[in-house]
Design goal:
The chain has seven helices and no strands. By secondary structure, it is mostly helical. The chain has one domain. It is globular, with a radius of gyration of 15 Å.
Length: 154
């Protein structure tokens, strides 16, 4: 039951269409909680969710098969990591524009799966489920940061 609740993010993963998109949106909602934009809060949350996500994703794979769509904790971690990377590189807290841009850029990289994300996606392990979104989050965070250099008003 814990694996279903955690990796499915309280049943968001059970939304019939675009569950990954809804999982990514959930990852963004946390930035509206006061204090969550602080790196000393965000980093431990990312690490804990990643580690627990590896274990619960493995449990869910036994029940639902390889990379089940009901698992969305990977999108939550990837989305949080995207914003974290932006914050580290820019030294800024995210604003609305950065959060919206982060969402679209992360979804792009999550869907396209540029190497090594594709490698991890093909592993069919709990670690692989989580890592392909970590890679997408790293790519997205870097791109969002580079785009922020172009647009001064971010």
């Amino acid at each position: 039951m814990f694996s279903i609740l955690f990796s499915g993010c309280f049943y968001i993963g059970y939304i019939p269409k675009a569950s990954g998109t809804f999982g990514s949106l959930l990852g963004l909602l946390f930035f509206f909680i006061q204090g969550f934009e602080k790196i000393e809060i965000l980093l431990p949350c990312i690490i804990i969710c990643f580690c627990v996500g590896v274990v619960t994703s493995k449990v869910m794979m036994k029940k639902f098969g390889e990379d089940p769509s009901v698992v969305v904790i990977d999108e939550v971690v990837g989305m949080r990591l995207t914003v974290f990377i932006f914050m580290i590189l820019s030294g800024l807290s995210p604003n609305w524009f950065v959060l919206i841009l982060s969402f679209f850029v992360f979804r792009f990289f999550d869907i396209v799966k540029i190497q090594p994300a594709k490698y991890f996606d093909n592993r069919h392990t709990g670690f692989g489920v989580m890592m392909d979104d970590v890679v997408a989050g790293i790519y997205a965070g870097i791109v969002v940061y580079l785009l922020s250099l172009i647009e001064i008003d971010l």
